[in-house]
Amino acid sequence: MEVTVAEDQLIDLRKKLEIFFDGNEKHHEFCPVRDIMDRFGDKWSLLAILNLGNSGKIRFNELKGKIEGISQRMLTVTLRSLERDGLITRTIYAEVPPRVEYELTQLGKGLLQQIMELAQWASNSMDEIMKARMDYDSKLQ
Amino acid sequence: MEVTVAEDQLIDLRKKLEIFFDGNEKHHEFCPVRDIMDRFGDKWSLLAILNLGNSGKIRFNELKGKIEGISQRMLTVTLRSLERDGLITRTIYAEVPPRVEYELTQLGKGLLQQIMELAQWASNSMDEIMKARMDYDSKLQ
DNA sequence: CCGAATCCTAGATGATACTG
DNA sequence: CAGTATCATCTAGGATTCGG
């Protein structure tokens, strides 16, 4: 499969890039792209968002069951971080034993959509990437 | 700013999700999304791709100059990894002193486009995220 | 049930020195 | 110029234990 990018499309890309990245050594202070990448560049945030999008309201341990291999600690840490950024809500019910439900906010759903776009690209490009890796590795003897 | 997601849109999202993520405990072996995330979840890949997209063909040290704070070692590591995945090409010129030029492949340009979409969302959502963070932090006393 | 606190390790990154 | 090699550091994440 070939991805084609026309020259004028690239020029447009470059124009957009200047919004976020500035080669002229100015305002490196803050980059929203970097910030978002850090947000789900970690090990679990992405999976948490995907599962929350798939489930609507969901309880802590129910979510834990859906995310293969995550520890209790990391689920807590991940959810706190997502909550802090306003991507999910956390609702505590005053019951015994306690019940806590998580749900994507509108903002979180927006991010989920972006992730889905990326996922689509990833899925479409996977074969090409895997082939490139095999080619590369085979050339190292 | 409000992001609105219609119910049918969400249903569509869920359908897409099932391509990559399966709550029913099957084929966890390989997730292309996870793989792509790992690709630029590291510290420098994203910046490298952005700068390569901005520059066309570019030499090692020239690129190093554009990426604020990157070490020689990490630029090498990052570029090797991108090359392995077929996202960039590496061209060596048999000269003294040596000259090596890097450039995005079509595949790499495709990824760049995806990143730009994400960047656009990130940029648009930044204010809302920052506000959520301040609200959250202020409630911890 | 949900989570906080603690301790610990692997892997990612940085600093530095050396080379074709 | 464009790397490699080595060593030091730093942090995300896992295991475990305790508590409301």
From TrEMBL, chains A, B:
<dbReference type="GO" id="GO:0003677">
    <property type="term" value="F:DNA binding"/>
</dbReference>
<keyword id="KW-0804">Transcription</keyword>
<dbReference type="InterPro" id="IPR036390">
    <property type="entry name" value="WH_DNA-bd_sf"/>
</dbReference>
<dbReference type="InterPro" id="IPR002577">
    <property type="entry name" value="HTH_HxlR"/>
</dbReference>
<feature type="domain" description="HTH hxlR-type">
    <location>
        <begin position="31"/>
        <end position="130"/>
    </location>
</feature>
<dbReference type="Pfam" id="PF01638">
    <property type="entry name" value="HxlR"/>
</dbReference>
<protein>
    <submittedName>
        <fullName>Transcriptional regulator, HxlR family</fullName>
    </submittedName>
</protein>
<dbReference type="InterPro" id="IPR036388">
    <property type="entry name" value="WH-like_DNA-bd_sf"/>
</dbReference>
<keyword id="KW-0238">DNA-binding</keyword>
<keyword id="KW-0805">Transcription regulation</keyword>
